[in-house]
Design goal:
By secondary structure, the chain is an alpha/beta fold. The chain contains 17 helices and five strands. It has three domains: 5-123, no CATH class; 130-181, no CATH class; 217-384, Ribonuclease H-like superfamily/Ribonuclease H (Nucleotidyltransferase, domain 5), CATH 3.30.420. Required for the transposition of the insertion element.
């Protein structure tokens, strides 16, 4: 028999043979079912490493399956490029390159059943977590957490302090997992952030609630950044206790002039639209040029707002509050009147006008100790005399 003659059978036949073995068939019985000799089946089995690791299925769609590895092997046999193979199985070509390099046999051949066995063996984690097994390590991590160290700081400290002792080193992810699993005692207060469970991450996953037809901040006129002419506003919401109430905040970028938006009926998109239209109607048209907001769902009807107020509305990048720095600073000042955790529904429209008046008549260093009201009045006077 020529060398590797047992590999001349179709891939589908081999696949069925290994499926039968995983179902509990003996080698001879599986060989009879697929129509090959027992010795041929035995050669297949030996070529796959002489073992079949139990496969519970991929833990995530990003992992390669047995079928993916068979497709890779068939593509290599057909002399296809790695990029073509990756496209056919819906993976990145980098993943396929790593797969071939990592799971090829010692002689350089890529055998899909061997490769799948190797991947399953690496996936198994029979060892006990270091933090669970090592009392000194666990005590040291607890001590650093009590001192308000972050898991990253603890991990770096362990590498510096115990350079040759793997048993006294852990990565930040291990500390997080142990903390959220309860291996480090009671969870509340263990992290500086106060979090007691992991925050969900959506890396690379498009957000289903993205606001339609947003104009990104990058398209806002550059002159707005120079703060030379007024009429460019930043806006946001201050949320009350239990997210049961809210107040809208507007601040003009040049004069730091503040307007507070009363939202007695809530702050969903229709209520927000109506409140902004009604409560900014008295602002002179020349001072209603741009409005910068975050990507909150309350601005879903931004096109209506722009059409009825004259504002050109621009949206910040996600999780980028510094792009509305003036508004964020103003919200911090407003917390003197609206403490976090308080019920904001108690404040009437009259209350909000009084609070805005106090803030607008407070001298600001950035304005040369003038008040926002004085700065705004100066601009309005200059505009009317031109």
């Amino acid at each position: 028999m020529p060398r590797w003659a047992h590999n001349k059978m179709p891939t589908a036949t081999k696949k069925r043979y290994f499926e039968l073995l995983r179902q509990g068939y003996k080698g001879a019985a599986a060989a009879r079912v697929v129509g090959v000799s027992t010795s041929c089946g035995s050669l297949w089995f030996l070529d796959a490493g002489g073992m079949l690791v139990p496969d519970s299925g991929p833990v995530s769609p990003r992992f390669l399956t047995q079928g993916d590895r068979i497709a890779i092997a068939d593509g290599l046999q057909a002399k296809q490029s790695v990029k073509a193979i990756a496209a056919s199985i819906g993976k990145s070509f980098q993943s396929v390159y790593r797969e071939i390099k990592r799971n090829s046999k010692p002689d350089g051949r890529y055998q899909p059943w061997w490769a799948h066995n190797q991947a399953l063996l690496r996936r198994k984690r029979p060892k006990t977590e270091r933090i669970r097994a090592g009392q000194p390590l666990r005590a040291l991590v607890r001590e650093k957490l009590r001192d308000k160290w972050s898991p990253q700081q603890i991990s770096r400290f362990l590498r510096r302090t115990y350079p040759g002792r793997q048993g006294m080193q852990v990565c930040p992810e291990t500390i997080y997992r142990a903390l959220f699993a309860g291996l480090l005692g009671r969870k509340p207060g263990k992290l500086r952030t106060g979090r007691t469970r992991r925050k969900p991450h959506r890396r690379g996953v498009p957000h289903l609630n993205k606001i339609k037809n947003m104009t990104p901040l990058a398209q806002r006129p550059l002159e707005v950044n120079e703060r030379r002419t007024p009429g460019h506003w930043e806006g946001d919401l201050i949320i009350g206790r239990g997210q049961g109430s809210a107040i809208g905040t507007l601040v003009e970028r040049v004069t730091r002039y503040v307007r507070l938006i009363h939202l007695p009926s809530g702050w969903k998109a229709p209520q927000m639209r109506n409140a902004l239209i009604l409560q900014t109607a008295d602002i002179p048209p020349e001072l209603r040029q741009t409005l910068t907001w975050d990507q909150g769902r309350e601005m879903t009807l931004h096109e209506d707002i722009a059409a009825l107020t004259g504002f050109q509305i621009y949206f910040c990048d996600p999780h980028s509050p510094w792009q509305r720095g003036t508004n964020e600073n103003t919200n911090g000042l407003l917390r003197q009147y609206f403490p976090k955790g308080s019920d904001l529904s108690h404040h009437t429209a009259r209350d909000l006008r009084q609070i805005a008046r106090e803030l607008n008549h407070r001298p600001r260093l950035v304005l040369g100790d003038r008040t926002p009201a004085e700065a705004m009045r100066t601009w309005i006077t200059q505009a009317s005399t031109r």
